[in-house]
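Working notes for the structural subgroup meeting. M.R. asked for a predicted model of this chain before we commit to crystallization trials. I am recording the input and output together here so anyone reviewing the notebook later can reproduce the run.

Input as submitted:
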Amino acid sequence: MQNNNTLKELAEIINSRKQADPKTSYVANLNNKGLDTILKKVGEEATETVIAAKNGDPDQVVYETADLWFHTLVMLDNLDLGPEAVLQELERRFGQSGIEEKASRKK
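Returned structure, recorded in token form:
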């Protein structure tokens, strides 16, 4: 049985480690280096996820997607956001086609 609270729990751990010693905490190290470093990691993990999908290796896709989600959570936390903000936006889009949603965005 999967834990539906995984994203929330991971976000809480990430937030608690943000102020830890950068020498002993990867999350603190990323935050200490700043948003640009975090964004580079998000981009790197997104690229690795795309490559894994292109290569057709399901295990590698899952592994790289986990890395991407983790680094995205670090980014959200750095910006004082959390997964609940993203989940609320996804819920808002329920029942609306992707084409309609895209057309409704302000330019």
